[in-house]
Amino acid sequence: MITAAQLRAARGLLDWTRSDLAKAANISPETIKNIEHGTFRPQENTADAIIKAFAAHDVEFTKDDGVRRHKDPIKIFSGTEGFGEMLDHVLTVVRQNPISRHLALADTYALTAAPETIRVFSDAMSKIPHLDAKCLVWEGDINMPFAYCQYRWLKKSNVWVKPFYVYGNWVGFVMNTGADSFMGVSISSELLAKDMREQFDALWNNADMPKVSKSA
């Protein structure tokens, strides 16, 4: 269980206000205030949201009631559970920096891999203020499941392109899009994220507007 002292110390490491943490964890500043004052004991889902919010920014809680920075530049997600964990990571980071770039090539897996997980993720993303989300799919693909996202058609060519997801200073790669065999890897690198955003923007500027409406 997170203690009041741990919570204050963790915020201190990131120089976060209660509002910053509330935004990252998608809970109210009043809840954080009550936890830190010892007047409220967080439920498991609230504590989990706080832990994930700090973990996305390389801060973890230790068993001796402490906190520490834990820079893990690579996160690996596997299986159905890993698919949800990767989306949770994207959501936590994007809440702090509402810009995402998603070169999907095909977004249809989102409808079949884990429908309920996708629904929850999509609903949460759509509630992020001033979200700037863009996605590239192959020319002619009419499956555009994320209503919060701008889509464009990537022109087909002989150039091999690997799908990727840029969010904050993280770059995610999907190895397999099946629910049970899903494998995703996210790398924390400001330089890599900058390069991949520039690559995405170059492709985006030469992509076509879809000639159909989004499905959701």
What's the short story on this structure?
Helices cover 41% and strands 22% of the residues. It has 216 residues and is an alpha+beta fold.
Task: Explain what you see.
The chain has 216 residues and is of the alpha+beta class. The chain has 2 domains: 4-69, lambda repressor-like DNA-binding domains (434 Repressor (Amino-terminal Domain)), CATH 1.10.260.40; 74-205, Endonuclease Chain A (Endonuclease, Chain A). Helices cover 41% and strands 22% of the residues. The chain has 8 helices and 9 strands. It has a 7-stranded mixed β-sheet with strand order 3-9-8-7-4-5-6, with helices on both faces. The protein has a two-stranded antiparallel ribbon with strand order 1-2. A hairpin with a 5-residue loop joins β1 (59-61) and β2. α2 (18-25) crosses α3. The longest helix has 18 residues, at 79-96. The N and C termini lie far apart (39 Å). The mean pLDDT is 87.
Distinctive features:
216 residues; Endonuclease, Chain A; 7-stranded mixed sheet; 8 helices
List the helices and strands and how they pair.
Layout: H1 4-14, H2 18-25, H3 29-36, H4 44-55, E1 59-61, E2 67-69, E3 74-78, H5 79-96, E4 99-105, H6 109-112, H7 115-126, E5 132-138, E6 150-154, E7 164-167, E8 170-176, E9 183-188, H8 190-205
Parallel strand pairs: 4-5, 5-6
Antiparallel strand pairs: 1-2, 3-9, 4-7, 7-8, 8-9
Helix pairs in contact: 2-3, 2-5, 5-7
